[in-house]
Design a protein that fits this description.
By secondary structure, the protein is of the alpha/beta class. The protein contains 15 helices and 8 strands. Bound molecules: zinc ion.
C-alpha cells in the first residue's frame, strides 16, 4: 500500500469583529497583533471617506503613523499604485477600507508585499470580505486570484448600513447562491471525484440557510439587517478557506454571472446575477427553486432578466455559454451546456424571462 502523503493548509483570520461601532477597536486589534510601522489605508475617493477617517483617528490614538492611498476599481494599474505607495511610505501593514474592490486591492498588495492586511468593509455586496480570493480586472478580463484571508476583519454594522441597500441585497443573493454551488460540487464529486469537503460545504450551506431563513428580517435602513447578513457573508469566506478553493460558494450560477459580465457588462451586480443564476440552476438540479426565488424577492434582490437590466436574448446567450467559463469546474451544465431551446425553456419556467 502507498504511504499516506496528503497534506493541506488552511488560513483563517485571527480576529473577526462584527457589530455596532466596532471600528473603534481597530487600534486595539492592531496592538494585539503587535503590528509595527506605518499603517497604509487603502480606500476610495468617495465610499470610504467617513470610515477611513475613523480608522485613521483610532490608529493615531494608538500612536501609529498613518498614510492613505485612494484608488478606484480593482485593476492591475491600481494594484501597482497601492504597492508603490506602500513601498514609498514603508508600510508595515495595510488596512483596506471600502467596498469589495478596495478590500481586493489591499488583499492582493499584502500578498505581493508580504505584509499583514486588515479588512474594514463599508459595504457587504459579496462574499469577498473574508475570503482568500480576490478579483481584479486586467484589460477586459476579470481574473479571480488566490490571495490571503485578512489577518483581521472589522465589520462595523453602523458603517455598512449607510451603504446603498442594493449592495447588501446583492451580498445576500451571493450567499444564497451557495445552495447551488454546493450541489454542483457534490455532483462533480460523484462524477469526477472532485475533492469534496463536507466541512466546507456545511459551512457554506449554513451561511446560505441562515440568510434564507432570515430573509423576512432583511430590510433597507435597518442596522439589524446588516447584523443578520454579515456573519453568513464572513462564514462563506471561511468556507473557501476550509476548501482551499471557491468551490463551496461558486458553481454554475457563478459561471452564469461571469459570462453575463462579458455579454452585458456593468448592468447588474455580481451577487444579483448569481442569485438569478441560482434560481435557474436549482431548477436544473431538481431542487426547490421557488424557495430561492421567494427569499430573493423578500430581500428585494432581482429574480428576473428585467430586474437585472438585461434583455431576454442576453440572458439566454449567457445560459447557453455559461459552461465555457471554467472547463475544469464540472457543474450541472455538464461539458456541453444548454441548447438555446432548453435555455429559453429554463428561463421561462423559472419566471426569469
Ligand atoms: Zn460570488
Amino acid at each position: 500500500m502507498d504511504s499516506f502523503t496528503k497534506t493541506r493548509g488552511m488560513s483563517f483570520p485571527r480576529q473577526v469583529l462584527a457589530g455596532h461601532g466596532c471600528v473603534d477597536q481597530i487600534g486595539d486589534v492592531c496592538e494585539d497583533f503587535e503590528l509595527k510601522g506605518t499603517a497604509l489605508i487603502v480606500t476610495g475617493p468617495t465610499t470610504g471617506t467617513l470610515a477611513a477617517g475613523l480608522v485613521r483617528d483610532h490608529l493615531k490614538q494608538k500612536k501609529y503613523d498613518v498614510q492613505q492611498v485612494e484608488v478606484g476599481v480593482a485593476t492591475q494599474q491600481n494594484l501597482v499604485k497601492v504597492e508603490e505607495v506602500a513601498k514609498d511610505v514603508k508600510a508595515g501593514f495595510l488596512v483596506g477600507v471600502g467596498g469589495g474592490s478596495k478590500i481586493d486591492l489591499a488583499k492582493l498588495a499584502s500578498v505581493n508585499l508580504k505584509i499583514p492586511f486588515l479588512s474594514v468593509p463599508t459595504s457587504a455586496s459579496h462574499d469577498g470580505i473574508a475570503s482568500p480570493r480576490a478579483s481584479i480586472k486586467d484589460g477586459g478580463n476579470s481574473l479571480s486570484l488566490n490571495a490571503k484571508v485578512p489577518m483581521g476583519i472589522i465589520a462595523d454594522t453602523a458603517l455598512i448600513v449607510k451603504a446603498p441597500y442594493r449592495l447588501l441585497a446583492s451580498g445576500c443573493a451571493d450567499v444564497i447562491s451557495n445552495t447551488t454551488a454546493i450541489m454542483d460540487w457534490q455532483l462533480a464529486d460523484r462524477l469526477r471525484s472532485d475533492d469534496f469537503s463536507s466541512s466546507a460545504a456545511n459551512l457554506a450551506k449554513y451561511a446560505a440557510e441562515s440568510v434564507i431563513e432570515n430573509a423576512y428580517a432583511i430590510k433597507p435602513n435597518l442596522e439589524e439587517s446588516v447584523w443578520v447578513v454579515i456573519r453568513p457573508i464572513i462564514i462563506s469566506g471561511i468556507s473557501m478557506a476550509v476548501a482551499g478553493s471557491s468551490r463551496p460558494t461558486s458553481g454554475s450560477e457563478h459561471m452564469f454571472s461571469h459570462i453575463l459580465d462579458k455579454i452585458a457588462p456593468g448592468k447588474a451586480l455580481h451577487g444579483e446575477q448569481c442569485g438569478v443564476g441560482s434560481i435557474m440552476m436549482m431548477y436544473l438540479h431538481g431542487g426547490d427553486w421557488k424557495r430561492i426565488q421567494r427569499a430573493l424577492r423578500m430581500i428585494g434582490a432581482p429574480t428576473s432578466a428585467k430586474e437585472l437590466g438585461v434583455s431576454k436574448e442576453q440572458l439566454i446567450e449567457a445560459l447557453v455559454h455559461a459552461h465555457e467559463i471554467r472547463k475544469d469546474r464540472y457543474t450541472i451544465l455538464g461539458d456541453r451546456g444548454l441548447t438555446p431551446d432548453s435555455a429559453e425553456r429554463l428561463a421561462r419556467i423559472t419566471e426569469v424571462v
